[in-house]
From TrEMBL:
InterPro entries: Glutathione-S-Trfase_C_sf, Glutathione_S-Trfase_N, Thioredoxin-like_sf. It holds the Pfam family GST_N_2. GO terms for molecular function: glutathione transferase activity; maleylacetoacetate isomerase activity. The lineage of its organism: Bacteria, Pseudomonadati, Pseudomonadota, Alphaproteobacteria, Rhodobacterales. Residues 3-84 form the GST N-terminal domain. This is Glutathione S-transferase. GO terms for biological process: glutathione metabolic process; L-phenylalanine catabolic process. It comes from the Bacteria.
């Protein structure tokens, strides 16, 4: 069973993040096809994914293409009932579906004033009243869900509901938006989630900055986990002879704690430099 998923720039495409999390966070294999936003790449690629109009777009194993992340979530849940995309408990599932639906359709002010950008974090973005109202609604929804269901995530265990709020959590982190302690703890959970850490690590290195997302605000350090101090180095000498991800011969190398580790291309190396602990296959070599 083979799925093909179209995504945009990882650092900026919030809907692409949702689409990818529906696979990676629930252990469903997928072939990725990436196209850069604000170029001809995405519309040209989507010609093969009709009638989808933007990323994410998914081609199902039988060849049918669909768009819209909520439709993708429902289709995957139907085809992979044991993956845990929706809670099995009826009440928790109802809560999760309500949350995902409201997120899919709402929070326009927050999205407009604070577009997703995983490459920076700002000290303040002067959120207007409309954004503050969206934040208040988020806190209301998140508190309601936890009171109704309990558990670590919104509907107990990690589900589609959390996937849909992941880009909102990143906006709170990027723009240092004012939320209470409970909401901030939920944001911190997202920043520490293994799949999100892998996505952000790739987003830091998979293309040039997009000017549309530039904001002239004072910056601060990213509030998530501080990565290990790896750096890219020249040469091919490394402890490992094969890339930990592809098994192909080493062509690019990073250095960490005075040790050298090799990869099959610059992207494999650079995504690991961005956050070594996000990559279990690398950490298995590093800790051996």
């Amino acid at each position: 069973m083979t799925y093909d998923l179209v995504i945009g720039d990882r650092a900026y495409s919030s809907w692409s993040l949702r689409g990818w999390l529906l696979f990676d966070a629930f252990g469903i294999p997928v072939n990725l096809h990436q196209a850069r936003l604000y170029t001809d790449e995405l519309p040209n690629m989507l010609k093969d994914f009709f009638p989808a109009r933007t990323a994410p777009a998914l081609r199902l194993p039988e060849g049918l293409a669909i768009g819209e992340s909520l439709a993708i979530a429902e289709e995957l849940a139907s085809r992979h009932p044991d993956a845990g995309l929706w809670p099995t408990d009826p009440k928790a599932r109802a809560v999760a579906r309500m949350l995902a639906s409201e997120m899919h359709a709402g929070f326009v002010a927050l999205r407009s004033h604070c577009p997703m950008n995983l490459r920076v974090s700002y000290q303040d973005c002067a959120p207007p009243p409309e954004v503050l109202a969206d934040l208040a609604r988020l806190e209301t929804l998140w508190a309601w869900a936890r009171a109704e269901v309990g558990g670590t995530w919104l509907a107990g265990s990690y589900s589609v509901a959390d996937v849909f709020f992941a880009p909102v959590a990143t906006r709170i982190a990027t723009y240092n938006l004012p939320v209470g302690p409970a909401a901030q703890a939920y944001v911190d959970q997202h920043l520490a989630h293994p799949s999100f850490r892998r996505w952000r690590a790739m987003g830091l290195v998979d293309g040039a900055d997009q000017p549309f997302y530039w904001r002239d605000y004072a910056r601060r350090d990213w509030p998530g986990s501080r990565p290990l101090p790896a750096r890219a180095v020249e040469g091919t000498e490394a402890e490992n002879a094969a890339c930990p991800y592809s098994g192909k011969p080493v062509t690019h190398v990073l250095e960490l704690d005075g040790r050298r580790f090799g990869f099959c291309n610059a992207f494999c190396r650079d995504k690991t430099v961005a956050d070594p602990e996000a990559w279990p296959a690398f950490m298995a070599i590093y800790q051996s």
